[in-house]
Amino acid sequence: MNDADTIPARLHAILAKDGKHGIVFRRGPSKRVCTFLWDRFRDSFQMGQWLKGRIYERRSDLSPDGRHMIYFAMNGKWDSETRGSWTALSRAPWLKAIELYAKGDCWDGGGLFLSNTTYWLNDRKFGNHQALLNSGSVTRDEEFQPAESCGSECTGVYYPRLVRDGWSRTADEQVGKWHSQTIFEKPLAKHWVLRKIVHGQVGPPIGKSSYWDEHALVNRESGLELAQPEWEWADWDNNALVWATGGCLFRARIESHSKIGRAKILHDFNNYSFEPIKAPY
After folding, report:
1. What is the arithmetic mean of pLDDT over 14-36?
2. Which of 143, 234, 229, 150 is nearest to 188 (CA)?
3. I want to staple 196 with a disulfide (CB 3.0 to 4.6 A). Which of 130, 184, 225, 281 is the partner?
4. Pairing status of strand 54-55 against strand 61-62
5. Are 13 and 57 in contact (CB under 8 A)?
6. CA angle (277, 279, 281) in 5-degree steps
7. Greatest Cα-to-Cα distance within the chain, rounded to the nearest angstrom
8. Residues in a beta bridge with 112
């Protein structure tokens, strides 16, 4: 058995502003990705579609009403119509494109929703997206640019998305020649703060991508700090803490300034394997 056989499903979620929906990207093995629609009131999950390739979840976004998704993907078929990588807009949680841009490399790509029906395409540095499909139901805003440039890979979309969704960027640190980390924080309840440590690293740990996250909980009143290095994604949702680790999603209430409540498992995403699924449109 090799290391890849023991790595649990890798998870990343995006929460829609409407408070009802979320999208979960489930990756594993490394070239297989599946999407799930998360009903955040019922904590139920609807499978979308699989992709044989890579979805760059940190360059992806969900519309405020949870209806549409934008994502950047790569399958390495450089002679195909999409030139091996592409940005697509779809009806969440499906991957079938309603708007499609061929890319041809892995710089830039993806984008952000500016409203339920308008989006920004991350094409600011190289400008080499080629439009292949247009739906008329959503509109690209060609004038918008994020307030600050955060690079031309995952951070170029991920950092503006975090700030938009209530995170504060508090520190940038160089921890090695090819390893940097950026700290984001979000206030919770009872003086707790969720700290997100975003790593950019050449030669990351086994089971991690070049960009990976870990977390910590810090209480500003008690001074208690709880490191959560195994949490690969975490956020604050419906007055509760939600996080992903070991291929599972969890939720817990905050009980006091010194204690987090009992964790409830929402879903185990480990026991899934690729299957062809058609979108219902």
Report:
1. 95
2. 234
3. 184
4. unpaired
5. no
6. 155
7. 58
8. 120
pTM of the model: 0.95
Distance CA 205, CA 203 (A): 7
The answer to whether 85 and 103 have CB atoms below 8 angstroms apart is yes
pLDDT, tens digit (0-9, with 9 covering 90-100), for 155-183: 999 999 999 999 999 999 999 999 999 99
95, 132, 152 from 80: Cα distances, Å? 18, 12, 23
Does the pLDDT at position 129 exceed 50? yes
Q: Are 180 and 163 in contact (CB under 8 A)?
A: no
Rounded to an integer, what distance in angstroms lies between the CA atom of residue 100 and that of residue 86? 7
| Tens-place pLDDT, residues 216-268 | 999 999 999 999 999 999 999 999 999 999 999 999 999 998 889 999 999 99
* DSSP output for the chain: --HHHHPPPEEEEEE-TTSSEEEEEEE-STTEEEEEEEETTTTEEEEEEEEESEE-GGG-EE-TTSSEEEEEEE---TTSTTTTEEEEEEETT---EEEEEE-SSSSS--EEESSSSEEEE--TTT---EEEE--SSSEE-SS---SS---SSTHHHHHHHHHHTT-EEEEEEEEETTEEEEEEEEE-STTEEEEEEEEEESSPPTT--SEEEEEEEEETTT--EEEETT-SEEEEETTEEEEEETTEEEEE-EEETTEE---EEEEE-SS----------
Domain boundaries, the chain: 3-268
